[in-house]
Amino acid sequence: MRYFITCLVLIGLMSCKSEEPQKPRNISKVEIETLLQDSLLNVRALEINEGRVVAATSKGDIYQNIGFNDKFDYGRYWETTEDSLMNNNFRSLAFQGDYTYTLSIGSPAKLFQGGWLKYYEANDRAFYDSMDFWNDQEGIAIGDPTDNCMSIIITRDGGETWTKLSCDDLPKAKEGEAAFAASDTNISIIGNHTWVATGGKVSRVLYSPDKGKTWNVYDTPIIQGKETTGMYSIDFYDENNGFAIGGDYTKPNDTLNNKIRTQDGGKTWQVVANGKGPGYRSCVQYVPNSNAKELVAIGFKGIDYSNDAGETWKHLSDEGFYTIRFLNDSVAYAAGRGRISKLTFRE
């Protein structure tokens, strides 16, 4: 009997120990390996899917790593395109299922599935900022208002057709409210949940619980009021925990009210690390498997890391990038002006 009780006690202690929350790492450095370098290269759209990395440029070029290694090559799809990809300024990219989707800024807006033109919008005010997918069949892209609401187009048939939502079905945009095509991270998706970050004179979060069928809008305390202020990037770790970053790219060292966090799915937001670094950043991403504690923010002023959900930050590098995506909890790929690089984070 004593032996049985002792075993139960030991099992209980072991169980309690296994349920202790994992202590966040303390990343102290980042190693940067340049994989593709060209003075004419300008990349704000980068995605990773099943280990493959795809990047789209401001000149309409598409690069991808070959054979699951770090060698990048062209993928222009000249042999199948109906409308030449060249001379399109791609700021939005999605690598979903068997296809790479690219979406240009400016008018006319053009969305390609591989090399095939699938959506065309000739409107002087058209300017699309970001694109993402819920699954292989359903995807979304968002852009600046052409009427009195944000532009949102959705596919439900694997990218074959895209439909623009009516402003009757969306929250009305406020004067000066738009979005930034800075890093293709204006949209964050967790399951059926979707968050869209707007910016400019007004910076709010549009939220859909049902893959874009219905929408709500939430105010944020991030800096706003000018065309160059607001959220530039948003990311969610799960249905509750999210983070957004931005500021004013014309004043990149300003650190007031440019980092905000939510713990209730985006309904309310709080400013964190106010008056402390980093300043303006164009992209923020949660580190995978970090229990919503570890974040990396990047911009043309460098790379920063937090292991306490954004309360404090460590500046890791002055190397500038526009956008970043994680392959795992230690390796990421980043891109910007002139290069695509592999980033390895170490304690």
Question: What do you see in this structure?
Answer:
By secondary structure, this protein is mainly β. It has a single domain, classed as Methylamine Dehydrogenase, Chain H, CATH 2.130.10.10. 5% of the residues lie in helices and 45% in strands. It has one helix at residues 2-18; strands at residues 29-49, 52-57, 62-65, 72-74, 90-96, 99-104, 109-113, 116-121, 128-133, 139-143, 151-155, 163-164, 177-178, 187-190, 193-197, 199-200, 204-208, 216-219, 229-236, 242-248, 259-262, 270-271, 283-286, 295-299, 302-306, 314-317, 323-326, 331-335, 337-346. Strands 4-3-2-1-29-28-27 form a 7-stranded antiparallel sheet, with no helix packed on it. A 4-stranded antiparallel sheet has the order 5-6-7-8, with no helix packed on it. The longest helix is centred in the N-terminal third of the chain and has 17 residues, at 2-18. It starts with a helix and ends with a strand.
Number of domains: 1
Q: Using the CA coordinates, give the radius of gyration.
A: 21 Å
What percent strand?
35-45%
**CATH C-level:** Mainly Beta
Largest sheet: 7 strands, antiparallel
Query: Which CATH architecture is right?
Result: 7 Propeller
Low-confidence stretches: 1-19, 77-82
Provide the structure class.
mainly beta
Shape: globular
Q: What is the CATH superfamily classification?
A: YVTN repeat-like/Quinoprotein amine dehydrogenase
Q: How far is the N terminus from the C terminus?
A: 47 Å
Number of helices: 1
CATH fold assignment: Methylamine Dehydrogenase, Chain H
SSE sequence, one letter per element: HEEEEEEEEEEEEEEEEEEEEEEEEEEEEE
Helix content: under 10%
Strand order of the largest sheet: 4-3-2-1-29-28-27
For the residues shown, what is the average pLDDT? 91
Per DSSP E runs of 2 or more residues, the count of β-strands stands at: 29
Give me the oligomer status: single chain
